[in-house]
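Email to the structure team, subject: C-C motif chemokine model.

Hi all, the expression group asked for a predicted structure before they design truncation constructs. Nothing fancy, just the tokens so they can compare against earlier work. One-line instruction: predict C-C motif chemokine, return tokens.
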Amino acid sequence: MESNKACLFAALCAFLIVCSFVCSSDSASCCTRYTKKKLSCLPVKSYSVQTIQGSCDISAIIFHVNRRFVCADPTKPWTARAVKCLDERRKKRVNEVLMGKLSNDSKTQ
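Reply from the structure team: attached below.
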């Protein structure tokens, strides 16, 4: 009887440990603090937005820079400038692709 209780207790402990790792993996991808360095737009590839509506504790702009992520305070002016720069860069690329497609289509007609 004692060995059954011990086995049940060990299984329950193992379950709780596994559960704590699974539950904490959601917050592992969240920003927990902001960078103190100001980034220029040039090295940044793209960005994503983190909100506190999910499992994250702070709102942040996550800049994607050469194989790493940099968390920035969305209320800082430099963050807004970098986001604007990236949005303009993306818009320019889309326009270039569309214009290239339109000019290629007119050549084939």
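Residues 31-108 form a domain with the OB fold (Dihydrolipoamide Acetyltransferase, E2P) fold (CATH 2.40.50.40). The chain is about 50% helix and 15% strand. Ping us if the truncation boundaries need rechecking.
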